[in-house]
Design brief:
The chain is an alpha+beta fold. The strands form 9 sheets. It has an 8-stranded mixed beta sheet with strand order 32-33-35-34-36-37-38-39, with helices on both faces. Strands 5, 6, 7, 8 and 9 form a 5-stranded antiparallel beta sheet that branches. A 4-stranded antiparallel beta sheet has the order 1-2-3-4. Strand 32 (471-479) and strand 33 form a beta hairpin.
Amino acid sequence: MTTTAADSASASGVPNGTAPEPTDENIWLEDIYGEEQLAWVREQNARTEDLLEDAEYARLEGEILEVLDSTDKIAMVSKRGDWYYNFWKDRENPKGLWRRTTWESYCSDAPEWDVLLDVDALAAAEGEEWVFHGADFLRPEPGQPYRLALLALSPDGGDANRYREFDVETRTFIDPAAGGFDLPTAKGNVSWLDADTLLVASTADGLPRTASSYARTAVRLHRGQPLAEAARIFEIPEDHMMAIVSHDSTPGFERTFAVDWIDFFNRTTSVLRDGSWTAIDVPTDVNLSAHRDWLVFRPRREWTVGGASYPAGSLLAADLDRYIAGERSLTVLFTPDAHTSLQSWSWTRNFLLLNLLRDVSSEIRVLDPSAGWSSSVLDACPPLHDVNAFAVDDEDDAEGGCEGDHRSPGPRGAGDDFWLVATGFTTPTTLTRGTLSHGALSRGAHAGDAGVVSSHAVVKASPSFFNDAAYEVQQHFAVSDDGTRVPYFQIAARNLVLDGQNPTQLSGYGGFEVSRTPAYSGAVGRAWLERRTAESAGTDGTAPHSRGGVYVVANIRGGGEYGPSWHRAALQANRHRAYEDFAAVAKHLISRGVTSRERLGCVGGSNGGLLVGNMLTRYPDLFGAVSCGVPLLDMRRYTRLSAGHSWIAEYGDPELPEHWDFIRTFSPYHLLKDGVDYPETFIWTATSDDRVGPVQARKMAARMQAMGIPNVWFHEALEGGHAGASDNRQAAALQSRSQHFLWKSLAGGTA
């Protein structure tokens, strides 16, 4: 028997005060690594691969892999001391190389890379499918080079990491028998306190975990000491999300912080003073960060303090020591308006860079605290592009720049240097380096009224992977059910015919204050924009012609495109607004003649998987196909699966009857009904995803198939974590399956 109603529930075994549980015939699939369950997965995979992996799929996968493996891509770097570090994957090195080079070499067309770690060789030698997740360096003594680092290595691409101490000069891991740090695989974080001491928040070796599966305690671990014997220095309640500890080693500003991350949007931060934790007195929904003398605050709701009120999404500053001592004198650095929001900020040594969005196009402002926080616009942001500015190394004071980069001559440090990473849907990514300074304008420099000089030049540029000149980017606004204007980007051929026959892929996310901004994708260009239909006559009698795909990105509520109020508008009981916004964009595309129900598909992953799951179940009349990746779908049990408990602040708690009343209205697993003409559906996930997990995707596919819904396909990668892929080959296969499914469904083929 198949249960399709959200309120069908077993009458027995329900605790008082707990929402009833709908009958779940597929709960057996929640055993992620069970033999019977994996046999079901393998059967589903074979069925889907038989459908999708034809000759056209093979060509598509090869073209996407060529993009991902391209040796002409920008090797993005991070600076530590005199070296620039990069992690690189390509065809010859699918698991990747951790490497470094000098600035002079990096500026050349063919940098000479010093390989520190070959992850493929490490995996082969140790028999473990390692996935590199980053490096954290120990700050050396003054005048000494950066040498020791903790490398985060995941055995399967999931969020749990093993931390191992590495010496970049000898290019070896330091043997634990000789005192090297080697922490067991677990979720958590690690920070250097000094050369022989780590601050560790972990779930390994019996340390307690929260209901969200993250670390509940932090310890001080000395070299050579077992983790289980380390002294506990910080602990949070079990129902909070996670504990984090970190040490700021900035010379002259050394301090240790602990964060009780209560839920996704609320936290308390404490600083260690005189051997005890001192909580920084702010509301839990005010984000804060420290830089040298300064505390910076970004409230998620209106904040009244010191007799003044500050709107959500503003940015405020205070002297750190004075604030902790009780002074409440705040300086306003940014105030949002109806069109402009703050996305992020980054400190150089002497300036503060603000990355803003104005109607989802980038704007960057430079603030000068030495001049009363005066503000200048950085002249670096073309319309309908995403440009991000961030510091190169705010603590460096002993480096010059590239020859011919038009910056101020003479020896100087890089403390006020910044990176600019710019991209657009039809603009390959460029990497620019610049510097900020005070003084009179020089030729080639840009500045505002504040007298801040910004000179910058392009260092690297990515190649084009498709004929981007043949396409144009437009921004349109749809109107949602409550009258809210919802922006979206449309990328299509310049000669697009508005006859409703264009295969169109609509992408969205709409959660956790994550913004969807313009971004170049060679894979989307090749797999969707440049792909051609068979020649056919238009509905208006025009001559037969083939056409490419249209790609659309929707900036719906729940995201962060207009700041925290845009996100908060679709929280919990208001979740429906995100789905109404997305549906409004779909309707707008159809009304404009861009596409039609038969030619319109949608794609989303993670929270975006929940989004398109709701398009499938609530708006099946708008879409011809749905590609649903690593999704949340069973919103009654999501808090019990993987890291789901950590998202209660976003969706609500389904254990509470009053919350389940609204959650069930956007729980796709419980919204399926008999007799509905559902779009063709592809659900994909990964066994090793320890964030959302594969369970909800499995159950949704199994229920739809049991209901006799035609053209429901499922695929589960056996590794790759929440990203669904741990190397370029897996990523190319994942993207190709989704793109090929949508094209077959929307462009004339039948999946």
